[in-house]
UniProtKB/TrEMBL annotation:
Belongs to the enoyl-CoA hydratase/isomerase family. Keywords: Lyase. Its EC number is 4.2.1.17. InterPro entries: ClpP/crotonase-like_dom_sf, Enoyl-CoA_hyd/isom_CS, Enoyl-CoA_hydra/iso. This is Enoyl-CoA hydratase. PANTHER family: ENOYL-COA HYDRATASE, MITOCHONDRIAL, ENOYL-COA HYDRATASE-RELATED. The keyword Lyase applies. PROSITE patterns: ENOYL_COA_HYDRATASE. GO terms for biological process: fatty acid beta-oxidation. One of its GO terms (molecular function) is enoyl-CoA hydratase activity. Pfam families: ECH_1.
Amino acid sequence: MLSITDGDAVREITLDRPDARNALTRQGVTALADAVTAASQPVVYLHGAGTAFCAGSDLDVVADLDGDTGAAFARRGQRTMNAIADADAVVVAGVDGPARGGGVELALACDVRVCTPAASFAETGVTLGLFGAWGGTRRLRQAVGTTHAADLSLSGRTVDAADARAMGLVSRIVEDPRAVADEIAANDPDALRELQALLGQNGSQAATDEREAAAFGRLHAEPR
C-alpha cells in the first residue's frame, strides 16, 4: 500500500496501489498515519504512484459497511487525517492526477498542497449517497470558503488544476511537486517547526468530527 523513501530532510511516502488509483483500505488508512507521524525528517512528501493521487476509500471496503462499521471507518479516517494535520513534520501533498473523495480529504490534511497541470479534484461522495467524513467537510470549508465548499460538496463536480488554484485548494501548479518539498526542507528545521505550529490547522476538532462520523454511519444504515 505504501512505499517509503527516507532522505536526510525529506521522508517520501508513496501511495502505491496504482491499479486501484491508490484507493485507501482500512489497513492503508492506519499505515498512512503511522508512516507520517513516525518521520524524523522535518518534511514529509506525500504523493501517489501511477496516474492518480488517491481515489479515496476503496469501494470494496465502503460497500461492506453498515451503520456501526460506517461510523467506525469514518472515525478511523478522521484519526489518520488529524494525525497528518498535527504531525511534527511539514507534510506536502503533491497531486499529479485525480484526487477524489477521501483523496481530496487527504490532501486537505496536509500543510502544503501543490499540483501538476494534470491534477483534478472532486468530492464525489454525494454522487454515491455519501460525503467526505474524514474531516473533509470542515477542512474544505477552511481551505476554500463556504461558497466553494458547498458547490464542490453538493454537486460532486470535478475541477481542474487551474480552478483548484484559483479557489485556494492548492497553492501552486508546478511540473515537479517534489521540488516544493525539497525547497521547504532546505530551510531551518527549528523555524519550520515553529511556523507550522503557528499556522496549524487545529486538526482535532472532536465535536465536528463526531457529527461527521455519526452521519456517515446513518447513511450506511439506510437501505440503498
